[in-house]
Amino acid sequence: MTPEKILADAQRRIDDLAPALYIGGGFVPSTSAETIEVTNPGTGARLGVAANGTAADVDAAVSAARTALPAWARTTPGARAEALFRFADVVDEHAELLAALEALNVGKSYAYATYEIPLISDCFRFMAGAARTAQAPAPGQYVAGQLSYIRREPVGVIGAITPWNFPLLMAAWKIAPALAAGNTMVLKPSVLTPLSTLVLAGLATGVLPDGVLNVVTGAGATVGRAMSHHDGIDMMALTGGVGSGRQVAAGAATTVKRVHLELGGKAPVVVFPDADLDLLVQTLIAVGYGNAGQDCGAATRVICHEDVRDRLLEALTAAARQLRSGNAAAGEEFELGPLISGAHRSRVAAMVDQARQDGARVVLGGEMPAGPGFFYPATILADVAPGTEMAREEVFGPVISVETFAAEAEALSKANDVEYGLAASVWTRDQARALRFTEELAFGSVWVNSHLSFASEMPWNGFGKSGYGRDNSAYALDDYTRTKHVMLPIGTPDGS
Length: 496
Ligand code: NAD
Fold this sequence. Notes:
It is a single chain. The protein is of the alpha/beta class. The protein is 40% helix and 20% strand. The protein is built from 16 helices and 21 strands. It has helices at 3-16, 55-74, 77-93, 95-106, 110-130, 167-180, 195-203, 220-229, 242-254, 277-288, 309-321, 342-357, 389-392, 408-415, 431-440, 473-479, and strands at 21-23, 26-28, 35-40, 45-51, 140-143, 146-154, 157-161, 184-188, 213-215, 235-239, 258-262, 268-271, 301-305, 361-364, 379-382, 399-405, 420-421, 423-427, 445-448, 463-464, 481-489. The chain has a 7-stranded mixed beta sheet, sandwiched between helices. Strands 9-8-7-10-11 form a 5-stranded parallel beta sheet, with helices on both faces. Helix 1 packs across helix 4 (95-106), helix 5 packs parallel to helix 6 and helix 10 packs across helix 11. The radius of gyration is 24 Å and the shape is globular. It binds nicotinamide-adenine-dinucleotide. Residues 161-165, 170, 188, 190-191, 219-221, 224-225, 228, 238-241, 244, 247-248, 262-265, 296, 394, 396, 422, 460, 462, 466 line the site of nicotinamide-adenine-dinucleotide. Nicotinamide-adenine-dinucleotide is lined by residues 161-165, 170, 188, 190-191, 219-221, 224-225, 228, 238-241, 244, 247-248, 262-265, 296, 394, 396, 422, 460, 462, 466.
């Protein structure tokens, strides 16, 4: 099928979706008749509607998750793995539909969205396998005559809240480890992008037992808040901004539940004169402007040696000028999609204006285009001063800022001069220098001569204000389990 046909089918699927929640293994109406208008950011036009859920809907979803919990928690890891493998297969079978939904709602090109689906099914497959490999200290007599062993148990009902930039991938990063560990879940997608998550949940019918996965759409301030404060939820997991993280942690504190936070980032890209500039520019184009820069690990804060700055600016500007914008709904091929909303675009534009006032030089872009959709051009800012908003705060847009350094220690101190600690990269052919940076950069993922490459086997997590949860890898599975120490008297053969 052509992308145009796949996208048209996905739009029909959206048109057929009555505003509903996914609770207890099926779609049910919200307790409120209110709906959320969902927009195509490429045109600004209405894409569809979703239910504007309420605290009462959260109660119903928690009740379904609690009912499903004992049986799911008692299944063997092998049986859970089987279900998750089947779910991964179902995701792959519906790859075109899911990619099209993601493209229509986030505004990314269909081609870009298709790369995300295998990452989603791989996440389910990895967690299915990892579920069968729980680790703990060996059982033994750590106190003479007493046998100790560890049980890895699910935490209970997980409340998960996801952002709009990668709605399905971020949902998978929560659902897969939580369910693999034997928990059940209530998930709230972003109010801006609820559609693909609802469709994904619908695909779970008959694959996962009813009530294991529930989805309530609605606003953070109502549904998200009700979840964080809910007595029937044992742990909250959020991917989102720092402000939402604070609110979720504060709500969770009222019932002392566990919290798992994946928050914002401000990834430095440290460039030495011996870096492979062609590869660097390619990478900046792919993961600085990819998804319109709306990526928590986006390579958008270049800190380059003063000897290489002009060459880099020239090559990056030439490459960034080639980026095409387009409307995903029309099946167009493009590299630079729109921002998610008008409000977000205004925020990005205001940050660029502030950078100008703080002395930055606009090398490319920086002007809001006329026309439909929430587009913002590929922008490059040079001479960004340390300590300014542009150097320290997350833009979440297609804006690459460039700072310079003269000495290695200065590069390191500039790179670490942020409150976030999610992702960073260093670009040099000098391996010893690269290793020094991997030790000193205070970020949860550090790449040498690449940026934003993932593996399901490796953790994704932040330091500092980027939060304290681990997605992906066996560490994520650990985060969704609790350890119980069991001790029983077995005596000794001589009766002592
Ligand atoms: P956001 O914080 O606005 O929203 C995230 C989710 O939190 C949404 O579902 C929202 O409805 C909900 N929410 C908002 N207020 C809430 C509250 N008071 N209580 C409970 N839930 C609430 O974030 P966003 O704009 O959707 O996404 C962008 C942010 O997410 C960026 O800061 C980005 O860096 C971050 N992000 C982080 C990662 C990561 O892995 N660390 C990945 C993707 C995005």
